[in-house]
Amino acid sequence: MTWTPESWQTKPVAQHPTYPDPAALQEVLAQLKRLPPLVTSWEVNKLKAEFAAAQRGERFVLQGGDCAESFADCRPELITNRLKVLLQMSLVLTHGLKTRVTRVGRFAGQYAKPRSADLETKNGLTLPSYRGDLVNAPEFTPEARRPDPQRLLDGHTRSAMTINFVRGLIDGGFADLHHPEYWDLDWVQHAPLAAEYQTQVDAIGDSLRFMETLAGAPISDFQRVDFFTSHEALLLWAEQAQTRQVPRQPGWYNLSTHFPWIGLRTAALDGAHVEYCRGIANPIGVKVGPSMGIDWVLALCEALNPQREAGKLVLIHRMGAGKIEQHLPALVEAVRKSGHPVLWLCDPMHGNTQSTSNGLKTRAFDDIAGELTSAFAIHRAAGSRLGGVHLELTGEDVTECVGGARNLTETDLERAYRSQVDPRLNYEQALELAMKIVGVQGR
After folding, report:
1. Phi-psi region at 123: left, alpha or beta (left = phi > 0; alpha = psi -120 to 50)
2. Cα 250 to chain center, whole Å?
3. What is the CATH number of the domain that holds 95?
4. Residue 392 annotated as binding?
5. What is the average pLDDT across 417-426?
């Protein structure tokens, strides 16, 4: 079948809302199609090259951010804190792994979320499920839950503001390795890991000054870092509207993000999401869970990367700490034997979600760290390589995941549980996980 940006419309589509006014949707999509893109084709190609380097073991990929962004959180202090925690984690990983780190944020477009059911019932009232701010609002009222296409434009605007602010911070020297003190978060000055982190910062500063003394000049590569964006390619109407051809580059690019991925609920081989993603030039991620058989995954590899291009396809396994030993080894071995070039990332978050006694969703830090430890060992034993991690985290002082250095309990969750969708690692837990990755990889 010949691919076009519209060919996904001939396939079964999952996780799409039903808009009450189709004409209003088409009007918004026409506006979205005329707006400037959020990223450029050369940035997309650069990320693909870095993913190819990660496949070869020359880089490590850190992908992280909110489970689902909200319009209300498009605020400079929240964006800055999110950037800070990713920079600090990447500093720990670079120093400990002796490998360059590619930073990919789950932001500037992660406004939609898949749902397990189209409808939700409370106290006898049934309404559409909340599908993220790109679709509707979380309040349980008919007006709030009605899918509103205007939100697609609002999401594009906030994504553009987020990317612009992040680029401004980085170009202005915020990410300069000469000044990691810019990345400090006030609320964690007395965190259990603060002293260990500061020791690493001091060591990196000494090494940097030594190299610059030998070179006789500042090393410009350490004055800024590259940063890439990602989101789940869920609402294909919006993805199509930002899919463009560009001068002097073959093919079609999704210019709403550098790195779109396909979720577990939309990975059907004959589905609309696979059909859309197989035709774009961006690197593509696919979430892989324990319910997906080997034949399914190999068929996805063939469909999404038939030319076997390095850096093109990223498999993000999310098995769960209790299932990874059973399901991942055979899958890794099968992909290795097939010859398909893939970059493997581990998502240790989604397979480890549980509910507390009072109904809050949470994740245990030990399960998250345990799945990561197993993932590294499984890839090493199979002659494969785990090239990075995919995490849900925040730079805020939230209490959503139990455990970690402060040993948060179910009772602690009630202090600052703010997520409307999935529980996230807070800054301390994220930094601790980065240190554990270094420990595991250094074995």
Report:
1. left
2. 27
3. 3.20.20.70
4. yes
5. 89
Exposed/middle/buried for residue 356 (C-beta within 10 Å: 0-12, 13-18, 19+) = middle
Q: Is 318 annotated as a binding residue?
A: yes
DSSP annotation of 37 reads P
Closest CA to 114 of 200, 236, 31, 277: 236
Q: Is 66 annotated as a binding residue?
A: no
User: Looking at the domain assignment, is residue 17 inside a domain?
Assistant: yes
Q: Report percent pLDDT > 90 for the chain.
A: 75
The answer to whether 350 is a known ligand-binding residue is yes
CB contact at 8 A, 347 and 363? no
pTM of this structure: 0.92
**Residue position matching structure tokens 């590569």:** 221
How far, in Å, CA of 230 to CA of 205, rounded? 31
Q: Are 378 and 325 in contact (CB under 8 A)?
A: yes
Measured CA to CA, the distance from residue 81 to residue 169 in angstroms comes to 12
Residue 18 three-state SS: coil
Q: How far apart are CA 111 and CA 420, in angstroms?
A: 12
- Quick one: average pLDDT of 283-304? 98
Q: pLDDT grade, residue 84 (50/70/90)?
A: confident
Q: Residue 51 domain-assigned?
A: yes
What is the per-residue pLDDT across 145-182, written as a single tens digit (0 to 9) for each? 999 999 999 999 999 999 999 999 888 777 666 556 55
The strand pairing partners of 181, in sequence order, are none
Could you list the residue range(s) of the whole structural domain that residue 333 is in? 7-168+226-441
d(C-alpha 224, C-alpha 381), whole Å: 36
When the pLDDT of each residue in the chain is averaged and rounded to a whole number, the result is 90
190 located within any domain:
no
Q: State the total domains in the chain.
A: 1
Residue 30 lies in a domain: yes
Q: According to the annotation, is 309 in a ligand binding site?
A: no
